[in-house]
Sequence to fold (413 residues):
Amino acid sequence: MRVLIVRAAPWRGVRLSDVRAAYEAWALVLLGVGVALPVFLVPGWVSAPRLGDLALAAALPLIALQWGRMGPAARAAGPVAAFVLLATMLIQVSSIGQTLNVSDAAFWFRWLAAALVAPAVGALIVEDAERRRLFFAAVLAGAVCHLATYGLLSLFGRDGLQAVGLASPRAAYTSVVARVRITTVAEHPNAAMGMIGLAVPAALEVLSRQWSRRTVALSAAGVAAVGFLCTLSRGGLIAAGAAWIARVAVGRRWREAGSPLGLLLAVCLLAGGLAAIQVTRVEVDVSRFAARLDKEQMAENLRGRIDTWTRTLDFVAERPLGVGWSTADELGTFRALTVSHNGYLFMGRTVGVLAAIAALVLHLWSVARLDVFTPLSVYLLTMMLSEDLAQGAGFVFLICLVAALAWRRPVAP
Fold:
């Protein structure tokens, strides 16, 4: 007599809804960390794909999973934006008469994937408060880890960090008129500060109305301040302050109660920090970063940027469909003159003026909602108006995400 023993498959008790929830959480964490911490997936290679590229590729199934949650406008936004971008890319390639190289393909993949994924992610974090906090907690963690690479740089050196993908081969330690600026995974101090400063809007998104949770936001402000000491980039610091002011405006719009205990805590933390510096005798070179806030230098810098913006506007007027990413051979030495110090102008130069105008309008619309997402929208708008950030996968995704959030219903903080 034979006895048949049937053993249940280990996966039989797993529900499809659990798998979906786990994947959504994993995708949001990967996207959030990848925005602020662009770790190299192939260490030591300048053009290696980064964590943000992997996150975009891994998040593509969210389009199908979130299709039912998206409204008509959000459903149309992704495909329409991707179609316009794809058509622009093909027109650029045909006008140049060349095939795409690796850098071109990576640049356009970021834009196409971000345009498709952003509406799905937007629908998910608007409807689900838990997922929203998870995503922004991941952004906050990525910003903190990005700042931590500066400490690791002093311990292990640039070569040690490059070996594990935590520093770019183009990471810089520059000194101009005794002003030291440092980069690790980002290749320009302004981009690095843009990523580190994301700690402030991310923390403000994570917070609840309880005053005790505001310690996280104060700590994030400290992260931004230390990031400025390392990068000397004013844009990110100004954007972080603008995000904080926007959160105050949102609180008034939603009639939030004031927080005297939170203000007291902020004062105590500031006083404690100053006391710790005094007791431990930490030497802070105030002149090093005070010069970056000098009125005369800032006025001179603004004049230079106005000249840059004017030059880029002339270039965009001549080539309204953009010139793509890797077109140094076609532009010659003039390519160096098209550094725009403005993300929207950079978009006009690379992906076309139509995409740039659409992004600017949608970002302003998103800011005007005055809800829980407004600090992020204000931060991105401020950074885009001051720096060329429409390049890496992280900020390309944020550009598309904030644009997709323009169609949201106002969400209470």
User: Anything to note?
Assistant: Residues 41 and 314 are 38 Å apart (CA to CA). Residues 129-163 form the longest helix (35 residues).
